[in-house]
Amino acid sequence: MLLKLTGSSCSGKTTLARSVGDRLGRLAVHDFDEVGVPEGADRRWRQRTTEMWVRRALEHQDRGVDLLLTGQSPLGEVLAAPSAPLLDGIAVCLVDVSDEVRRSRLTARDASR
After folding, report:
1. How many CB atoms lie within 10 A of CB 22?
2. What pLDDT does residue 56 have?
3. How confident is the model at residue 111, as a pLDDT?
4. How far is CA 17 from CA 6, 29, 39, 44, 112, in A?
5. pLDDT of amino acid 1
6. Predicted local confidence at residue 37, as pLDDT
7. Radius of gyration of the chain from its Cα atoms, rounded to whole angstroms
8. Could you list the mean pLDDT of each consecutive 10-residue stretch along the chain, which spans 113 residues?
9. Which residues contact 8 (CB under 8 A, 6 or more apart)?
10. In sequence order, what are the residues at sequence separation of 6 or more whose Cβ sits closer than 8 angstroms to the Cβ of residue 14?
């Protein structure tokens, strides 16, 4: 099964995913962008990369492990991935945070770079 955790930057996706991953067994946790984002990444790149992640979810599924994937890829692109119908299921959770909190987190993140 593919579990998709999506939301805007600094909404808490990574923090939530790590917390869930630490508490549950048989769950692989990954971030969409961990494979690298090329200069000039476009919709076509994102769609190809989405298909790659769906295939990875299928590999995990074959071993009895679910894949929790964080990122901002649109749900429609996940559902449209050629391999998506082979998954046992797809579940999505949208994470949101107030604009004030998001600005504060972005400022703190930028200051630490």
Report:
1. 9
2. 98
3. 79
4. 10, 7, 26, 26, 21
5. 95
6. 92
7. 15
8. 89 83 85 93 95 98 96 92 98 89 82 75
9. 72, 96, 97, 102
10. 31, 70
Residue 13 token pair: 């996706």
Q: What is the pLDDT of residue 14?
A: 84
pLDDT, tens digit, 9 for 90 and up, residues 78-87: 999 999 999 9
Asked whether 48 and 81 are in contact (CB, 8 A), the reply is no
- Domain carrying residue 28: 2-111
Maximum Cα–Cα distance across the chain:
43
CA distance 19 to 14: 8
Alpha carbon 89 to its chain's center: 15
What length is written for the chain?
Answer: 113
Give DSSP secondary structure letters for 39-86. TT--HHHHHHHHHHHHHHHHHHHHTT-EEEEEE---HHHHHHSTTGGG
- Residue 97: CATH number of its domain: 3.40.50.300
Structural domains of the chain, count: 1
